[in-house]
Design brief:
The chain is α+β, with helices and mostly antiparallel strands. About 30% of the residues lie in helices and about 20% in strands.
């Protein structure tokens, strides 16, 4: 199972090497885990793009977040069933009104250098996240903390935030409103602590390489430089739960071509490879195939600032209604994906009183309808004239290419005069292009780090750092703000407000076109056991994984 040195540069001669390799790599032979024939707890995994920043206040993409969750643990973490349980916090006391959380840290909570994790480390990290001078894109996660939103909007001093390090072990959080999902939110790696002395000493070099970070999670990082294609996870001996961590070493690589990764799994050089599309069908009867539904959406996004035609609601509605999502999910992707007709995917949030999933509660929007799509296109003639050319940004992998070509075909066939030009980019480049607003149409996705509904609705709020396309609707933003601050004792009220906001976003304004709820598929060496697939945030989690 150990990856041979030079796995990435050796791809060109892989065919010659396959004949001399056997599946299973170096995983031995016997159940003896103490003697010379002990099973080597070392595996190799791949991700489809390089890691971006490992500064937890700045991380946004799911690929990097997968590694973040192995390196940085916060007050709470997700268990195998994606439920929040104590992490670096030993316990929490919640006030009777649900607005004050008092966390007590574990005595054995340590940084990877052996220093004690203290409450001031959380205070520093959370203030750094919302401070306008250092603010990260996920600062909105703390908007319910007293004064936090006003701070990030530049209206109050960061020292006025509703947080306090009462002593070394006690961290207090004061909320504006009760928030039943708050422990889920603090389980996200984005809210992990940061060591002020270390961060300050590193200055601009902080998080640039694996040596420029301190860690609190089950693993530490080695052999990584920003945008590098290889990295290594090594068991963190200063982690309080180290006895639960069985793997000693995890070799990570960027493998963009799925076929290359599959060959490496077959040869025993690689133990985990994500696959999609045709490969899922090819391996559907293979015991190594693991399929997990994602609590995530994939959608078509409009940049209204980049092309004036996209500011016209009839253009957007025509495009939204011209896409057969069922055909896309079932026939084009055929990888476990399901059609999605709303902003929120199934399985994200259930009303605690009625037990009804929000997706079922809110209903479906912009169902495929060629007749109405053509009618909307006619209404848009004043804007588009006899034709309109739009650039569609997609990822340069198998899924991105297939989805792009399907959308191109559907839209050009249904809407006369519309020309779609596909622009394929690597995932990291695509994310940057979206951030920079350098696109007209884009296929993108969103997976929440927790069960918080607001993390999806925030994408289109006025002023949101994720509102790349410039959507503006005061009523939508007001409804989302109202829902987010609604008393948690009245779940029907915020369900109703979020439903009204979703109706404005999709049915009235067609500001986004939901496409499908994705599924993740992996080829995993059968000798590797205990990999966990959380509902939120990461692709996979190796905290309790082991080689059998």
């Amino acid at each position: 199972m150990k990856r041979k040195k030079g796995i990435l540069v050796a791809v060109g001669i892989l065919a010659l090497a396959l004949a001399g390799c056997t599946t299973g790599g170096t995983a031995k032979e016997s159940g003896d885990v103490t003697g010379k024939n002990a099973i080597k707890q070392e595996i190799s995994v791949s991700l489809p793009a390089p890691l971006s920043t490992l500064d937890t206040t700045q991380t946004t993409d799911k690929i990097t977040f997968t590694v973040v969750q192995h390196l940085f643990e916060g007050l709470y973490r997700f268990d195998d069933d994606s439920q929040p349980i104590p992490g670096l916090a030993q316990k929490v006391a919640i006030s009777s009104d649900g607005k004050t959380y008092t966390f007590t840290l574990r005595d054995d909570a340590k940084w990877s250098n052996g220093d004690k994790v203290v409450a001031a480390d959380f205070l520093f990290a959370w203030k750094r996240l919302v401070n306008p001078e250092t603010m990260g894109p996920n600062a909105y996660l703390l908007d319910n903390v007293v004064n936090s939103q006003a701070i990030r909007e530049g209206k109050k001093s960061v020292d006025e935030i509703g947080l306090a390090a009462l002593d070394e072990k006690t961290f207090e959080v004061r909320l504006k409103q009760a928030q039943p999902s708050f422990l889920s939110v603090v389980s996200i790696g984005w809210l992990a602590p940061q060591n002020e002395k270390f961060v300050t000493a590193k200055k601009d070099a902080y998080a640039r390489t694996s040596e420029d970070l301190l860690y609190t999670g089950p693993f530490v990082l080695k052999d990584w430089k920003q945008t590098g294609d290889e990295w290594t996870l090594v068991k963190n001996d200063n982690y309080y739960g180290k006895d639960e961590v069985k793997l000693k070493t995890v070799h990570g690589s960027t493998i963009k071509e799925e076929n290359t990764g599959i060959q490496l799994v077959d040869s025993g050089e690689l133990d985990l490879q994500r696959i999609s599309g045709q490969y899922v069908e090819q391996f559907k009867n293979d015991p190594r195939l693991v399929t997990k539904p994602d609590v995530a959406n994939q959608f078509l996004d409009f940049n209204q600032k980049a092309n004036p035609a996209l500011a016209d609601v009839h253009v957007r509605k025509a495009i939204a209604l011209a896409i057969n999502k069922t055909q896309l999910a079932k026939n084009v992707l055929n990888d476990g994906a399901t059609p999605l007709n709303g902003l929120i995917p199934s399985g994200l949030y259930t009303n605690p009183d009625t037990k009804e999933d929000f997706r079922k509660y809110s209903g479906d929007y912009n169902l495929y309808d060629v007749k109405v799509a053509k009618s909307e296109w006619e209404k848009a003639k004043a804007v588009v004239g006899n034709g309109l050319k739009l650039k569609l940004l997609v990822t340069d992998d198998d899924n991105g290419e297939k989805v792009g070509e399907y959308l191109q075909s559907q839209l050009e066939e249904t809407l006369p005069g519309l020309k779609i030009v596909i622009n394929k980019q690597p995932k990291v480049n695509l994310n940057q292009s979206r951030t920079d607003g350098n696109y007209e149409l884009s296929v993108s996705g969103w997976i929440a780090g927790s069960s918080e509904l607001d993390s999806y609705f925030n994408l289109y709020k006025t002023g949101s750092s994720y509102n790349y396309g410039g959507y503006q609707n005061k009523t939508y933003t007001a409804l989302v703000e109202k829902a987010r601050t609604t008393d948690a004792n009245h779940p029907d009220a915020f369900f109703n407000d979020y439903q009204a906001a979703e109706k404005i976003l999709l049915a009235e304004d067609a500001a986004q076109v939901p496409l499908y709820q994705s599924a993740s598929n992996y080829l995993i060496n059968e000798k590797v056991d205990g990999i966990v697939f959380h509902a939120y945030g990461d692709y996979f989690n190796l905290r309790t994984a082991k080689v059998k």
